[in-house]
Amino acid sequence: MVNIDTVYQRVLALANKEQRGYITPQEFNLFANQAQMDIFEQYFYDVNQFLRTPGNDTAYSDMITLLEEKIGLFEDSSSVTYNGSATLPANIYRLGTVRYNNSGKHILINRVSEKELRMMSLGPLTKPSKSNPVYTVKGSTFYLAGITPASVQVSYTKKPAKVNWTYVVVGEKPLVNVYANDYQSFELHPSEETKLVIKILALAGVAIKDPSLYQIAGAEDNKNIQQEKQ
After folding, report:
1. What residue spans define the domains of the chain?
2. % helix, strand, coil for the chain, step of 5
3. What does residue 168 show for φ and ψ, rounded to 5 degrees?
4. DSSP H helical ranges for the chain
5. Of 87, 157, 181, 229, which sits 20 to 30 A from 148 (CA to CA)?
6. Cα(81)–Cα(88) distance, rounded to whole angstroms?
7. What would the pLDDT profile of 138-150 be if each residue is shown by its tens digit?
8. R_g of the chain, CA atoms, integer Å
9. What pLDDT does 165 receive?
10. pLDDT digits (tens, 9 = 90+) for 182-196
11. How far is CA 175 from CA 5, 57, 101, in A?
12. How many Å apart are CA 192 and CA 187, to the nearest integer?
C-alpha cells in the first residue's frame, strides 16, 4: 500500500516548486484515481508482453515474478449464490475461475461464449452436463449450463479501491484528515509510489495548462517504462 498523504505532499512540493499553480484536493483525488488505474491496467499488458520474452532465474529481477507479486495483491475469491443466474462481485476487474463443490470435490467450470454454448447444445456428445459444465458471462451476470448448484466459488482480480485524500481546512490551508471514514490510500504495491507521483504530475500539468510540467513528468515516465522493458 502507498500512503496517499505522502504522494499528495510530494506532488504539491514538485508542482509548486516554481509557482506553477495550485492543485486542489478535489483535483488531486481525480488525478490520483486515474493514475492508479493506469498503472494497474498496465500490469496485464506487461504480463502479456513479458511472457513472450525469456525471463531469468533471479526472482528479484524477473519481470513476470514482479508483476505477479503486484497483481497478487488484488486476487480474491467469493462464494456466489446461483439461482438460474448470479451476479459477479461488484469490485471485479478480471474473472479468474468458477468452480463448484460436488460432494467434496471441486469441479472447474469452463467459460464459453454464447455462440459456443449454442453450438455445444446441438450435439448429444458436446451438450453441457455434470461432467462437462460450462458458463457464459453477460455484463456482470453469469449463467451455468449442465448443472444448477446452489452456490459456486468465484476467483477473480479485484479493482483497486477508490483513493481519497480527505482533508479539513485550517485557516486557508487544507490538512489531511486520516480519521475520516472515507480516507483511502493507494492499494498498489509500495514500489509504485514514485510512478504515482510522476503520473499525477503529468495530469496536473494538463489541468493547470503547464506544458513544461507535463513534458517533464511524461519524459520521466517514458524513461521508467524503457528501463522496465530493457
Report:
1. 4-72+160-229, 75-158
2. 40, 25, 35
3. -125, 150
4. 4-15, 25-50, 63-72, 114-122, 193-207, 211-229
5. 157
6. 10
7. 988 999 998 888 8
8. 23
9. 95
10. 999 999 999 999 999
11. 10, 46, 51
12. 10
